[in-house]
Amino acid sequence: MSLVETAEQAKQDAAYKEALVEVLYQLADDDFIISYRGSEWLGLAPHIEEDVAFSSITQNTMGHAMLFYQLLEELGEGDADALAHERISNERRNGTYFEIKNGSGTYLEEPQYDWALAVVRNYLYEAFKKVKLEEALKSSYAPLRNTADKVLMEQPYHLGHWKTWITQLQDSSQEAKERIQSRLDEAWKQIGDAFELGPKADDILAKEILSSSETLKQRWLDSVKETLTYVPNGDLASELGNGRAKEHTDQLDQALATLSEVYNSDREAVW
Amino acid sequence: MIEQQRETEIFNRLKKVDDPELPSVSIYDLGMVHEVTIDDNAHVAVTLIPTFAGCPALDIIERDVKNAIEEIEWVKSCDVTFSFDEKWSTDDITEEGKQQLKKHGVSPPPENYQPGEEWSVDCPYCGSPYTSMENVFGPTACRSILYCRSCRNPFEAMKPVVSYTAS
Q1: What Pfam families does UniProt report for this protein, alphabetically (chain B) (predicted)?
Q2: Residue A87 above 90 pLDDT?
């Protein structure tokens, strides 16, 4: 497969384009929903420095989502803002584990969020994102390579942050240890679909847009095993559904309704 | 020759457009200007390289650059675009930019930084290396918060961001 340099070139091969947009939606929707869940922690993080750090990571991750939505816009998928705000849950391709609520309550009412979930989920996500983007550096689609390279220049700060948290908590009090372990057990049952490539997986591989699901999973496991002192037994499962095939929980509907409320109040406004 | 003069004039103007979040540091000195073209109809196209992807100041920068260039008498119009294909790195900051950053209380990023390395930061006020990192994340994506144990001033530093090489 030779390098596809531009969106125009990609559009000339319908099968190539269809496979490519799947990969881009996965990358965009993952960054988008994880940063939305991150934004719900604003003002609620354990201490003020963490609040600054977490919101900075969240804002920058939203910027990464925007880069991927822009690549989709260039391919004729529609306006980047509309792709972020207007698509309903069964058009989304994010991994289901990244969409679940931060805990009980809502941001405005009784937000009883769980910090162990925030630490475990964000650490596992950033480790996964690094692996996926490193594989994207080898993609046949040049604009995807460039974007992956740009994001990877910034992302080490995000991964480093969550790695510090999980390393310290898993080596902390008995309660901290147990809460991290129980969130890891939960993650192992829910994160499986994140490694899937979706309905166009065969073409994605044949056209060398991204590496295989097995490669992503194996490289991710190798990387998290270097940091985690407790690794759950058993295979990764997808108990919440397969997000890459647009299956989602009603928790994603709740997130989308909240995050697009202002946007939907006046779609023509320039913010 | 006239063409060269015009180009110089554009660059001189760009050296006066400050980053909205770093007053007194120009977008030129931050290394954000990628390309300037002037066509036969006196239309100017400026291509900029954004710093961090999540930087919310891009719209303001675009407006400020457009306004600054269109103020030049012979310029008919100016278009500003951001290129995400080019990668900004903190190595692109000019010497002048580094001096201006220090005046603003922001230490410039380390030179010849390799990804993953630890880095040390000297205080922008007294130059002491006896500093501590308070928060890697600061008021904007590109800055960290530090404290100088010699002159007891809090200050900021630009995070090093350099091209990534897969390990």
Answers
A1: FeS_assembly_P, Zn_ribbon_PaaD
A2: yes
